[in-house]
Amino acid sequence: MKKRFALLSLLFGIPLHAETITETVSVVSQRENLLGLAESASEGIIGHARIANSPLSRPGEVLEQTPGMVASQHSGDGKANQYYLRGFNLDHGTDFAVWLEGIPLNMPTHAHGQGYTDANFLIPELIETLHYRKGPYYAETGDFSAAGSASLRYFRTLPQAIAKITAGNEGYQRLLHADSLDWGDDRLLYAIEAQRYDGPWEQNQNLRKFNGLLRYSSGDQSHGLDILAMAYQSEWDASDQVPRRAVSNGLIDRFGTIDDTDGGKTHRYSLSADWRNGPWQANAYAVDYRLNLFSNFTYFLDDPINGDQFEQSDRRHIFGGALKYAWEQSLFGLGSSQEIGLQTRHDDIGNAGLYKTRARQRLSVIREDNVKQGSLGIWWQAGWELAPSWRLTTGLRADKYRFDVDSNNPLNSGRSNSSIASPKLGLVWKALDTTDFYANWGRGFHSNDGRGSTIRTDPASGDPADRVDPLVKATGQEVGLRGLWLGRWQTTLALFKLDIDSELLFVGDAGATEASRPSRRAGVEWSNYLPINDWSYIDADFAVTRARLRDSDAAGNHIPGAAEKTASIGYAAQRGPWSVSSRLRYLGPRALIEDNSVRSGSSVIVNSRIGYQFSRKVGLALDIFNLFNRKVADIDYYYASRLPGEPADGVEDIHTHPAEPRMASLTMTLAY
Fold first, then answer.
1. Which residues pair with 547 in a beta bridge?
2. What is the DSSP string of 168-197?
3. Which structural domains are found in the chain, ordered by start?
4. The pTM is what?
5. Are 27 and 574 in contact (CB under 8 A)?
6. pLDDT (tens digit per residue) in 282-314
7. Which helix (H) or strand (E) holds 49?
8. I need a surface site. Which of 94, 178, 239, 327 has the fewest CB within 10 A?
């Protein structure tokens, strides 16, 4: 129990104090040392100071604080990021679970893709901690967490008001105001954010984003109540990925588009409560969500007259909550700290629709579905002190899912149920005061789109369609070490293997994910954090993964889009009123089709920041993104599309979305 409370104190009371929000931050203790606390080598906690020092071009890049994670984009900044981790092209979040204040961000049975995770409503300045865990080794994490998970927490109070004014090239503007007020013995925190951005695209992005939150807090982290209301809405025009041949033959510029009416709008409104009473913790949430997304990935392949643009519409209400109890107990002469929990979620999806469109006007209905999807998860986890230097972790999770689909095609309507059990096992050996060794094994899962569990007919072609298993098993194994060497060098090394019974792959011409073949990933990750002195540090994370489909198929066994190599190297320093930080992100080449005959290029992006603190109340920071103006791609796909005048069956080609060129923004921070 002492170890559990120590970990909770890091999550909720890290001494990376709230004053780091408003002034140049100390660069020590940027990554928390979990020696003697963590359950695996691939678990960690990132505090606010590390996040505050990082130049971020998009809110979703906060998740890149997870070692090995890459967050890119292939459409407008109002759409969810594209994520890569542990040999996965996670699309928009299929196997990486994300929570903010206990509210799940992944969307099951989503119109655009299973597990869709829109993190654009995050306010990075308010994030106190990011707790990442990789692999299916944790009983508390359920759906979508086979590759890993991240749990984010906002500050409960701020020491003073903060106002940020940012202006950059290509029409970038951002305003943020946040403050907390005493309300008797309790506290109120509020934040308001507005942003617009046109971008470097020939077709202006016209991003318009509004965001806000209001938080009531009483008590402390062990006994108290928090109520959090959040509201977010965004609208944008998109320049989706384009075929390379259109750029090479001069039809469009690198930053051009084929269909200039692509784009979308979305909103997310939520209300949640978090209650703590010693060993008891509970939370409940309600979310109102909507997305209308217009895309055209194949141009004139299916419809030479109207074009291939389609709309994906998702409208839902989400209700859920969790309950957890922790206690200490001695069994069989062994001391143990145990937790048991319950999680439930209900998605009332009023419409998950797919429509043929032209210039955002609906031409016909491909499919419309009303889906009611519910889940219940019960879990237990225990840590056992086998000896002074040995710890054993055991866990078990059981999940039950229910799907009720009402489709515009009665043949695709129906009900289905599924359940799955996920055991976990971990062993920690404290070989030295400065070194822990880990061995982990666990089963997890991801859910498939609920509509696939009742389908009989392909809604586009009318051909018979096979149903998918609602819940897909994942089995992971890992060994690793964690060290605190030379007094300050934090390092972790993990070797892992992960088998998934059915891969989720992106289908370019459908703009969605679909269940595919079984897969295996094996790799190694090395993560490092080294304070050079009291005012500077470096960090470096490297990952190499071999990802393959496990069955035999003439098409080949490479996984399209799977990230094989990633790296991140950062430096930050603060000396007097000056501060600097810089981060290099590397995403290696990837197979784009199963036989590996077509591959993407690699990308290297460097983002940097220089700041000056005039006083405790006034600071100025210059962010430069893509410092060396590298002409690289954010994303690459390979599939057939058709431009005007091309053969009716289209042309196979790499479709790419370029990384933005060198961009700069200047931020003034006022604290009062």
1. 521
2. ETTTEEEEEEEEEEEETTEEEEEEEEEEEE
3. 2-550+569-671 (2.40.170.20)
4. 0.93
5. yes
6. 999 999 999 999 999 999 999 999 999 999 999
7. helix 48-52
8. 327
